[in-house]
Write a structure and sequence with these properties.
Length: 272
């Protein structure tokens, strides 16, 4: 049953939230898990194995970024540690020069726009003296906020160890990051530039191919490993200003799955 609108003393009716077309056929996705929700009401709009624990690859960085902002200030300057060399041998990175210095805000931007593993490792080591210490802190941070189905074994999302999340909890992570003014802009930036105090400059581009397309993406993060498959989490704005969040995990074609899923929501739901 659709929720009813409630009138206040002046007669104004509060929005009842999204209402689904009862004749809508289910959407078909390659993703093994998916979750869509309405940001205003919190209503679930679509789900597929939303609470199944799965590896999430670089969607991990949402949790890492949220933990980092509790430990640092944007203008803090950190020295790039030697530990970034290992991260630069695997996956995305921005070729951070060991021993040079850079602001926390620039490392966070590189981590969320370019999914730069070396930027995340630099933040983890500089904020807690080691990546292991940081992971322990981040896991405590998550448990304290009710994330019972999310666990990190490293700061980047690299395969290995006991780490996982669910489509539903990834959605919560993305919404928390979106609500953080320090992180929001990074999650919708198509490009960025990192400049060290010594003058070394690194330009990079987003890993989110949907940015700049027909979907009005307000926030988003990608993730991929062979183990996890293709993963994507976004917050999208509709023509009426409504905002939905959507997560696909274990997809074969994450960008196609996301476009199909969001278009299906717009066709089959109406907002008061």
């Amino acid at each position: 049953m659709a929720p009813s609108a409630e009138a206040n003393e002046s007669g104004y009716q509060a929005a009842a939230g999204p209402v689904k077309d009862i004749d809508a056929l289910d959407v078909v996705l390659s993703a093994r898990a998916a979750y869509v929700w309405d940001l205003e009401s919190g209503a679930t709009l679509h789900e597929k194995a939303p609470d199944e624990r799965r590896p999430i690859a670089s969607l991990n960085k949402l949790a890492s970024a949220l933990a980092v902002v509790t430990l640092t200030r944007p203008t803090d300057v950190v020295e790039i540690p030697k530990e970034v060399a290992g991260a630069q041998r695997l996956g995305a990175h921005v070729r951070l020069p060991v021993g040079q210095h850079v602001m926390v805000s620039e490392l966070l931007e590189a981590a969320l726009v370019a999914s730069a593993n070396d930027a995340v490792v630099a933040l983890a080591v500089s904020s807690m003296d080691s990546e292991d210490n940081f992971v322990e802190y981040a896991n405590d941070f998550l448990l304290e906020r009710g994330f019972n189905d999310t666990r990190l074994s490293n700061a980047t999302g690299f395969s290995g160890g006991n780490q996982y999340s669910t489509a539903r909890e990834v959605g919560r992570l993305l919404e928390m990051a979106y609500e953080n003014p320090e992180l929001r802009a990074y999650l919708s930036s198509p490009t960025g530039t990192l400049t060290t105090s010594e003058g070394t400059r690194r330009n990079y581009e987003t890993t989110n191919d949907l940015l700049g397309g027909y979907l009005p993406i307000l926030s988003g993060k990608t993730g991929y490993t062979v183990e996890a498959g293709e993963n994507l989490a976004v917050i999208v704005e509709g023509e009426g200003g409504q905002r939905i969040g959507a997560v696909v995990l274990g997809s074969d074609y994450r960008f196609l799955d996301m476009k199909v899923l969001v278009d299906w929501i717009w066709r089959h739901y109406s907002w008061s």
